[in-house]
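User: I've been going back and forth on whether these two constructs are worth ordering. Before I decide, could you fold them both?

Assistant: Sure. I'll take them in the order you sent them. The first construct and its structure tokens:
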Amino acid sequence: MRLLSFLFSLAKVLAKQFGRGDNAFIFDFEKKRNVAATFYYVLNVDSIAQDAAKKFLNDLASTAAGHDYMVNKTNMVPAFNSVTLVPATPLSKAVLEHNQAKKAYAWWQNDMPSGFGMETLGPVYELFAKGEITKEQFVTQITSLIEGLK
């Protein structure tokens, strides 16, 4: 429980740094859940199949067949407002319902500058995991690194 409390405190610092405000992290996991895309579609700029890939992604997002594929064939939770289908699997359905009811927190790890997580914060996490710094030192160092992004 202490770790969870610490992570929430750290998340508040991140939220404030990235302009989300303190109210962005009033966590109540009985009412809200963290929700985010587990993957991203990327097109290779040098691919000879670029037009086909673009058509696939467009069809996925904008056609009934694409919606059916996303929701019914792969049990994805649609990220597009145009998709009105509801997943049949309990987890996907619950995630969609929470998201639509505005009971979801977003993951913001992708908003950090490139390399900030592993190259900047990672070594401090490692020191803490090895017991080489105290919890207070950990919080101070992490806070300082995040505030240094200004």
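The second construct, handled the same way:
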Amino acid sequence: MVWQYPDFKGYYLAPPLVDGDRLYVTGSSVFCFDLNTGNLLWEKPIEGGVDGSLVAHNDILVVQAGQVGMCGLNKYTGTQVWYNKDTDANTWELILFDGIVYCTSSGYGRLYAVNAETGLPSGKNNRPTGKTPKPAMRLSPVRAWLSTRSAGCCTRRTSIM
């Protein structure tokens, strides 16, 4: 074993994210460790805990905070940069593509698309999708695939139908 962190508090919800020499782990907080030494660099408590995966874009770490919203943290300090209360998703997976974070809500039947830098909606939010399973979406450079009760597909340049 290279290192371990004996005082981890929280619960595990998603795979850890490695970004450069940092390791991000979720639970009731987001924890940032130095990947080489195991030193805890910062911890940021998240209201409602972290629901699903993390994504990193430039200096921002995007976190879905349970069903209370999405937030962007400075990935070096843990300081909250933005908060979007309108992403009431219950999702396992955030997907980053071209600076936009996508997620679906399993209970509310919506697709959310949020600018990773600003937290502002990309203009494609709240498309009704029907109840979606987890994980429900895959993106490629050309197409976005969304699984719902009435499965749909769209090109990246049009909205999800």
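Notes on the second construct follow. The two ends are 48 Å apart (CA to CA). The first strand starts at residue 17 and ends at 19.
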